[in-house]
Amino acid sequence: MANHSVPSSVKIAPPPEELERPALVENNRSLGWISDTVAGVIENKTPGWWKLTFGISLLVSLGLPIGLVYLISTGVGVWGLNHPVAWGWAIVNFVWWIGIGHAGTLISAILFLLRQKWRTSINRASEAMTIFAVMCAGIFPAVHVGRIWFDWWLFPLPNANSIWPQFRSPLLWDVFAVSTYFTVSVLFWYMGLIPDLATMRDRFRKVAGKVVKPAAKMRNKLAQFLYGLFSLGWTGSNRHWRNYEKAYLLLAGLSTPLVLSVHSIVSFDFAVSQLPGWHTTIFPPYFVAGAVFGGFAMVMTLMIPLVSLYKGLDEIVTIRHLEVMSKVILVTGSIVGYAYGMEFFIAYYGGNPYELYAFKNRAFGDMNWSYWWMIGCNVLAPQFFWFKWCRTTPWFIWVVCGFVNIGMWMERFVIVVTSLHNDFMPGNWGYYSPSWVDMITYFGTFGFFMTLFLLFCRFLPLIAISEVKGVTPQADPHHPLGGAKH
Amino acid sequence: MDSLDDYQIPYGLMAEFDTPADAMHAAEQVRDAGFTRWDVHTPYPVHGMDDAMGLGNSKVGWFTFCCGLCGFFGGMLMIWYMNAYDYGIPVGGKPNFSPFASFPVAYEMTILSGAFGSLFGMLFLNKLPRLHHPLLKNMRFADVTHDKFFVVIEADDPKYEEEETRALLKKAGSKHIELVNE
Question: In sequence order, which residues have a C-beta less than 8 Å from that of residue A224 and are 6 or more positions away?
């Protein structure tokens, strides 16, 4: 409205140069360059490295059907589980994968609410990572129940015995938390894709006349049809953008408490039980910080190679983005380190001999290797990020993030296995080793995850085109580059 | 014989702009001229455009709120019905229904239905999906998802007069104005 604009007597000077923030997209690129670069990933020929990694991923993913078919046809005895460790790699892998997913939601929802504009370069790929990680996570609890043909009893569906699920169990809360998390992540991701799918539709439409070869013509028709169908007739109308942005804000507002609740509820699986080492009130915040920590490491593990392999993307995902993410890893890694220390202190200060034993056993018992791997990877490795060189050198960040991924897996192993293997009575104690089926199933999920992620990079815009355009200075109608006249 | 073009119904006038500032100033002029059936099409949401078009707050929030509320109470009701009314499961002398133990599930149901409400509320208010649109047939309009900005005034608008409207858009600074058919 007219009363919203500044009176003409007031002169607004541009901010002094030293206060101007560095542009998020380097080299002052135009709006069109952004769509050309990101869409180029889809339009150009399939690169050789893509075919190679896709083949390897597909091969590795075979471990999943082999491991699962053997497990389901034979029974959970094919895993390394036994008395007293009845929760082994399956639960470790479940918590690890679901934790990885949390960084995607943090980037897309929490950083959006905090107005961190740099998130636009990485949010699409991180959200895809979230969805694929939650898919991998969901496999494990579904198959670890043993008789998987009764899995549907977890859902509130009427069955022949007329018994309903038991809603006072944290394991059932988890079913609702994880399935809600997956569904909402998919909705959020799809909504963000709508304008970019419209960009792809229009790009294929523009070149349709120039395509001659019959095979290429077919491909172009198919691309126009599919991108057109899923972009739902988007025309970039401002009346639509108004509702779209409001819905985006609301979804971000809903996803923020969701992501915090999901890993809190995952931690309730442990914290609500009576076992020393699990029965701890620090678990919800400590699990959430750990999830963000491990998830950011996975985002960097995926993004650093992608950005160097696709031309031009390094001007959209810049060293500055990597540096900011390294800082997040440093902060959350230190929170996790604090939680490890505080757990030990409370075990001593709480005066419960079983609790104290559980913690001494973690650090110095017969599974102490996992504890020291965890400390080394999660607490010590990120401390390199105090130094600017370490935060701005991609290969170095990539190596540290690799350690963080290992460390977070070890953390879940420490929590699940070391608490179970030596509990209250020495007569109950035992050791745990995984079987080959545990291993190929876990490595199979890596293949599955990478296969999906590579398909995503090949066929969908892996950077949110319209969102990146929106944060450039030439997109701002009040900026000289956006056409404003001072 | 008349050509097919003679039977075509005009959809509206489409004016192209190169920068967001130009499109926004044009929108202000169209708004002040009192048009009602018109729109601005942009590659990304231009901030300040809602004011320039004279649009109020979006109503998506109501869908989110109502769906979220239904999700919460629906979740609570479901748990009460299943665990306390239809088939009580007594465990450890605890009450068959307690709002505290039911909270996590009801909370997740709130978020789940709130999220569906937001997305489908947005699509409903935008009258999407719409798989055919007169503008989508225009090749020049394909740049709306690339780097161009368009102001479109529909022929249905009561104030629409082809010559006058064209003059208004020209005055607003558009270098390319085109009549789009239905």
Answer: A201, A204, A205, A208
Residues of B in contact with A467 (CB under 8 A): 44
Structure letter (DSSP) for residue A462: S
A 443-482 near B (Cβ less than 8 A): 466-467, 469-470, 474-478, 482
Choose among A177, A255, A467: nearest Cβ to B108: A177
Q: Is the ipTM of this complex over 0.85?
A: yes
- Substitution target in B97, B108, B151 with the highest count of A β-carbons within 10 Å is B108
| Cα-based distances in Å from B129 to A198, A230, A231, A234, B159 | 12, 9, 8, 8, 28
Q: In chain B, what percentage of residues exceed pLDDT 70? A: 97
Q: Does B133 touch chain A (CB under 8 A)?
A: yes
- Class of B4-56+129-181 per CATH? alpha beta
H/E run at residue B11: strand B10-17
The pLDDT score that the predictor gives to residue B1 is 47
Q: Is B33 on the interface with A (CB under 8 A)?
A: no
Contacts of A12 (CB under 8 A, 6+ apart): A6
Q: What is the pLDDT of residue B16?
A: 94
**Which residues have a Cβ under 8 Å from the Cβ of B40 and sit 6 or more positions away?**
A237, A238, B23, B27, B46, B49, B52, B53, B149, B150, B151, B152
Among A137, A125, A123, smallest CA distance to A179 is for A137
pLDDT category of residue B6 using cuts at 50, 70 and 90: low
Return the domain boundaries, chain B.
4-56+129-181, 60-125
At A444 the pLDDT is 96
Element housing B177 (H / E) = strand B176-181
Which sequence spans correspond to the domains of chain A? 38-156+237-468
Q: What is the mean pLDDT of each run of 10 residues along chain A (486 residues)?
A: 52 68 79 92 93 97 95 92 90 94 89 90 94 95 90 91 90 94 95 95 91 91 94 94 95 94 93 91 92 93 93 90 94 94 93 92 93 95 95 96 95 93 89 94 96 96 93 86 76
